[in-house]
Amino acid sequence: MENFLDVDLTLEVLGYVQPMIVAGAVLGLVAGLLGPLVVTRKMAFAVHGTSELAFTGGAAALLIGIGVGYGALAGSVVAALLLGLLSTRNSDRDSVIGAILAFGLGLGVLFLALYEGRSANKFGLLTGQVVSIGSTDLWLLIGSSVAVLAVLAFIYRPLHFASVDAAVAVARGVPVRTLSVVFAVLVGVATALSVQLVGALLVLSLMITPAAAASRVTASPLKATLLAVVFAEVSVLGGMVLSLAPGMPVSAFVTAVSFLIYLVCRLASGKRERVQ
To answer: Where are the transmembrane segments (predicted)?
Structure first.
């Protein structure tokens, strides 16, 4: 009888952990591939602003009773489009992001105040709730990620060119404006997916920190991208494993691992510069 109970318990644990691992691996891949471009284009603040609108969309979804993932995705895409269309000049970018961020955050707080459901759902929007990812959310995440990666593969070369030197890219006929809007939407989708894992407040730990760490140890775009993917995967999967024993929020461990990797890379970079 005890053996049967042990088997049932093991199957239950596997059923609980497997969606977490799959979701984390997919998000790590997407964040790792997009991150170096985000860092190159100096869009860290834009990612933060987009995550706030993903939070607003998720809060609206809670209020009207639909899937949080769909709401977060809709909110982040709207934010990305607004940022891409309104930030016509680099000098305008920060002010536009700040205005949209503040409006979105206030609206999200209002939606949560009106929501009368479980408080854990409200908290999960800010800190992530990967443990509650079901089959529907998982397929949404995988489908959205495949779409992001397919579009990124199609536009990567002109996008990277425009990211490194926009003025020369314009002179060569590259549609820099269109690429900026498309990339903003890709970042918005990836941000919405990341919100499910680490929450709106900590999304930078996936979208920025691994890429920032990679940029400290290599100047090669290819190597930086590969390292960013590795760092993102280690942060996500390592954070998940570490969170299982104490039963604490996954986001705390993901961000801790990610920041530790960044510190190690920064120290290694500083040591190398002193030797040279």
So the answer is: 20-39, 60-84, 96-117, 138-159, 179-204, 224-244, 250-269
